[in-house]
Amino acid sequence: MCAKVAEARSPPRRAVLASETMNRAFLIIAIPAAVVATLYLLVARYLHAQLKWLPFVGAGVAFVIAVGSVHWYRRRKARPRSG
Description:
Layout: H1 18-46, H2 54-78
């Protein structure tokens, strides 16, 4: 009698949602950017450089507006069209 050899099967893959891809892409950009900005501020403080806070606040506001507009655009595009 011969026993059947069990084939190794990989578990079924689930579909990756577009929002999960967006979240990963956001983290891939946001985490290194936050680390670089923190190190920049620490080095500037160590060198006793006088930094203005307005450019940092402006860049933060622009970043939040950009993320919000992309989120709004993607949600608007995903809605089913009526008519």
